[in-house]
Specification:
Elements: H1 3-15, H2 20-28, E1 62-63, E2 68-71, H3 74-85, E3 90-92, E4 99-103, H4 107-117, E5 126-128, H5 135-138, H6 144-153, E6 158-163, H7 170-173, E7 178-182, H8 187-198, E8 204-205, H9 220-227, E9 233-236, E10 247-250, E11 257-260, H10 266-273, E12 300-304, H11 306-314, E13 323-327, E14 339-342, H12 347-362, E15 368-372, H13 381-390
Parallel strand pairs: 2-9, 3-9, 5-7, 6-10, 12-15, 13-14, 13-15
Antiparallel strand pairs: 1-2, 3-4, 4-8, 5-8, 6-7, 10-11
Helix pairs in contact: 2-8, 3-8
Length: 394
């Protein structure tokens, strides 16, 4: 039986299952802060910490005078799905970064994403699905490579670029003949997608929840601060597990090509495909996060090799307080009085904290952010890609 037929046969069973387990998992992923000493737990919702007060989740966890942030309970996931179905924008957690989502079948709603982000219309957005079973609704060709990668890495931080189905909206694809599909692994995202499916929607169009070209959001507070009331609701699922965007593989030309590195490495892809994906060509489809300048702080930033950073710190002529530093192996000089953050030594932890750290340094009032260049090597490819784009000078 053909792959498409097998998928359709499984679809009814897969998507009519109870949401109970998904909602239970979604509850687990929300951080519950311990009650401060001398304070009753029922008063936790009066704090300014996202993700607290789950017991009172019918109320916002916090409202910064901007978008309301809600703990990702079953009740709030239901409300978010209803808002999506009605055409509103919802921010939600994934295991990579937070997404700014709209019903992918609603052209007006998807256009609101572009307006909120300041995103160019020709820049496509990724469609998030509940499972690989829905691929035939969105892609007209699903080859053996797509099937193998979906089996190996979905749900997870992998986006597949496939030939689009005729029913896919132009606003989603940026007018291209391809579409990016992903099945996220975060339980809140899965629960939201499953509930939207019950309401008749079969995908959420969702780029990262940040202004176009700026630092991606890895927690709910960042989203609320950035978008204000342009977003109807922010679901708080805690901090993102990977902290950088998904790996993107193009499968439209017959030979897999890596368009964007991510948590799934080239080596892992090669083990499934039988060979490592090639580098993109000038004919490759446009994809999210592949511009030369992207993920950038407002403050000017530059990469500096460890030995050069040591030398630069020893010869500073401008006021030290006007420099912010993200170091990894270089020790902070005793006389340095500017902002300094020591990054994790291990690549996965570095990636997980990268965007939150850049956001923190961006608020320190520095003239420039100096970033110690991380090591080369397969585990650091995605981190180095993001840092090169974040420090690219236009």
């Amino acid at each position: 039986m053909a792959f498409r037929d097998r998928l359709r046969r499984k679809q009814k069973l897969t998507h009519r299952c109870s949401l109970r387990r998904l909602f239970e998992d979604a509850w687990k992923c929300v951080e519950i802060a311990p009650a401060p000493r001398g304070r009753r737990r029922k008063d936790l919702n009066s704090t300014k910490s996202p993700g607290t007060g789950v017991g009172d989740a019918a109320r916002p966890v916090e409202n910064l005078g901007q978008s309301a942030v809600h703990a990702a309970t079953a009740e709030q996931i239901e409300r978010a799905a209803q808002l999506l179905h009605a055409g509103a924008l919802i921010a939600f957690p994934t295991e990579t970064v937070y997404g700014l989502g709209a019903d992918a079948r609603n052209a007006d709603a998807v256009r609101r994403i572009f307006a909120a982000k300041g995103r160019p219309a020709e820049h496509p957005v990724i469609v998030h699905l509940t499972s690989a079973d829905l691929m035939p609704r969105w892609a007209r060709e699903i080859d053996a490579s797509a099937q193998a990668l979906a089996r190996a890495f979905w749900p997870g931080p992998l986006t597949l670029i496939l030939p689009r189905a005729a029913t896919v909206l132009d606003v989603v694809t940026g007018g291209q003949d391809s579409v990016g599909l992903r099945v996220p692994g975060h339980p809140v995202a899965q629960a939201l997608l499953a509930r939207l499916l019950d309401l008749g929607g079969d995908g959420i169009a969702a780029p990262s929840a940040n202004r176009f070209g700026r630092i991606s959001a890895t927690n709910a507070r960042h989203v609320a601060e950035e978008f204000g009331d342009a977003v109807a609701m922010v679901l708080d699922g805690g901090s993102s597990r990977h902290g950088i965007e998904s790996t993107i593989v193009d499968l439209t030309s017959g030979e897999p090509a890596l368009l964007r590195p991510g948590a799934i490495t080239v080596e892992a892809l090669g083990r499934v495909l039988g060979a490592a994906p090639r580098l993109p060509s000038s004919q490759s489809p446009r994809a999210s996060g592949t511009l030369a300048s992207h993920y950038a702080p407002q403050t000017a930033a530059r990469l500096i090799a460890p030995h050069e950073l040591i030398q630069a710190l020893s010869t500073l002529t401008k006021p030290v307080a006007r420099i912010a530093v993200l170091a990894r192996s270089v020790a902070k000089p005793a006389e340095f009085s500017g902002s300094w953050i020591d990054a994790p030594r291990e690549s996965a932890a570095y990636a997980r904290q990268l965007y939150a750290t850049l956001r923190a340094l961006d608020t320190r009032g520095a003239d420039e952010i100096w970033i110690e260049t991380p090591p080369d090597g397969p585990d650091w490819v995605a981190v180095n890609d993001r840092l090169r784009r974040a420090t690219h000078r236009q």
